[in-house]
Amino acid sequence: MTSISLYGGAGEVGGNKILIEDKETKVFLDFGTSFAKIKKFYKDPFYSPRGLLDRLIMGILPNLEGVYNPAMLKRMGKKPHEEPAINACILSHSHLDHFGDLVFVDPKIPVYCSRETYCAIKAYEDITKSSEERQWTYYQESKKVDEWIPLGYYWIDEFGKAHKTTKENATHERVIIQFEIPAEEIRRNFVQKSKSKIDNLEIELFPVDHSSFDAQALIVYTSDAKIAYTGDIRFHGFKTEESIKFVEKAKNADILLTEGTKINEEVSFTEYDVEEETKGIVKNTKGLVLIDFSLKNLEELLMYKRIAEETGREFVTSPKNALFLLYRDIRNLVKEKFSNFPSKILVFEKNISTRSKRNITKYKEIEVVEDEKIRKNPQNYIVNLSFYEFEKLVDFSPPPGSTLIINNPEPFDEESMLDEEKIQNWCNYFGLKNYRIHTSGHLGNSDLLWMVKEIKPKYILPLHSSLENALLIKERFGERVKILREGESFNFKPGLLSFLS
Ligand SMILES: [Zn+2]
Ligand SMILES: [Zn+2]
To answer: Which of 8, 96, 166, 227 could form a disulfide bond with 17, CB atoms 3.0-4.6 angstroms apart?
Structure first.
């Protein structure tokens, strides 16, 4: 019997955590961060849950045995397990709502994903390296600061113990006693293959079209079921053919796990439309062109490069983005996949940490464009600038008639509404014309209807979708749609009626 349970992604967009059980074998498909659950109580990035304990108590992470990092459990005063209860985590792609909570998972549990996904996670980790909560490919316990005796004046008693004192009474100056031994770094085992066998299960990954270049859909064969999982998917980008290939392979699946983010809408605006419309606006702009988009969408990066070339401009991005693009394996991978990958990457000036600065000078491909150059010849550039870098507008001082193109989803909650208001204020202040030219990273209504008609699954389990959208899916396809609540299981036995338990 095959059993499927959702521990995240049920009635919410993202935070996917799908447990598949077949006899003794247990795997998770994705182990993403639920931003909806975090936002219920906290306000990122300044006010976030403290580690595993807060997340378990506040219901942000499910209470599961044998899944979490034993070192973290120990620190919480909980008895850790000897051996993990899970055979593997399989990741669909490198968006945080699909892999983010891996940092809390027992590092002994192997992770399966595409080479692209591993590289993107590794690059992101290295570029933003900081706390324990950003260690996806390894685990290293953080330093115990309280075991340090700070600098100062001391006298040492007969037992050899140091006591802080004034300069006059000191027998020792600046005694530094450091008990800290750097913690051992435990590497996670990432298996980067498109086809794997995990105990009873066979798993195959298929690249698909989505707003992250590394997105994969999955087919899992258990001992009695064929399960197709869309991950995040769409059919209106530059890689639509690959999504269609997955649908071919998924035909006659017993169970289809499908995302439903946007299925309450028709998505007819394609990436080709984004390109045409953007090009038209750039052609008609006399001043500077600014574009805000997500770099994970590498196909779009190349699209903007193309538009720049065709309109006689140069494409300039942030130093951080350039570091991501040139990061070890990403660079090779991108070169392999995209023959038109730029040999030179232009970046704008930005005060960044010395570590990154050293990194930047290391790459011969990176060329820094001075602010003055952009200020004097705005008509020569398209600058890739995210909202969090808008302070650069002061340095660029774009002349009237300059343009901001936003390639991000419409604001959908209170927080993004507030951001939107700020963006408008910046635009008004600098006299920027602004446009939103965006197409969703997710499939719309007609494509869902088509996909289900092609695959002909016996059962459909909606996830990565609001409850309303899950109900819409049920309305479309009737009894074969099972809407799972969080923690609820769907059991499948071929030839028998399946049931919820
Ligand atoms: Zn997602
Ligand atoms: Zn995604």
So the answer is: 8
For residue 306, the CA-to-ligand 2 centroid distance in Å is 24
Both 135 and 174 in one domain: the answer is: no
pLDDT digits 0-9 by tens, 417-474: 888 999 999 999 999 999 999 999 999 999 999 999 999 999 999 999 999 999 999 9
**Total domains in the fold of the chain:** 3
Listed residues 178, 202, 234: the one ending a domain:
178
Taking the CA of 214 as reference, the closest ligand is 2
The number of CA neighbours under 13 Å toward the Cβ of 189 is 7
Distance 64 CA to ligand 2 centre (A): 25
Confidence of residue 286 (pLDDT cuts 50, 70, 90): very high
Last residue of a domain, one of 408, 436, 464: 436
Nearest ligand, CA of residue 262? Answer: 1
Give 100 Cα–ligand 2 centroid separation in angstroms. 12
> Which CATH number covers residue 40?
3.60.15.10
CA separation (Å) from 49 to 8, 46, 59, 93, 103? Answer: 17, 10, 11, 24, 14
124 shares a domain with 31? yes
pLDDT in the model for residue 132: 78
Residue 232 CA, ligand 1 centroid: distance in Å: 6
**Ligand with smallest separation from the Cα of 94:** 2
The answer to whether residues 137 and 259 belong to one domain is yes
Q: Are residues 102 and 73 in the same domain?
A: yes
Which ligand has the nearest atom to the CA of 12?
A: 1
Closest listed ligand to the CA of 95: 2
> Of the ranges 105-114, 205-214, 358-367, 431-440, which one carries the lowest mean pLDDT score?
358-367
Contact 90, 171 (CB under 8 A): no
Q: Are 172 and 253 found together in one domain?
A: no
- pLDDT value of residue 199: 93
Q: Looking at the CA of 211, which ligand is closest?
A: 2
| 134 and 249 assigned to the same domain | yes
Model confidence at 263: pLDDT above 90: yes
Ligand 2 centroid to residue 480 C-alpha, Å: 26
Distance 213 CA to ligand 2 centre (A): 10
Question: Under 8 Å CB-to-CB from 465, ≥6 apart: which residues?
Answer: 11, 13, 259, 260, 261, 263, 473
Is there a single domain that holds both residue 390 and residue 480? no
Name the token pair of 33: 């961060």
CA 286 – ligand 1 centroid, Å: 37
% helix, strand, coil for the chain, step of 5: 35, 25, 45
Same domain, 224 and 125: yes
Residue 212 CA to ligand 2 center (angstroms) comes to: 6
Task: Write out the residue range of the structural domain in which residue 350 sits.
Answer: 271-436
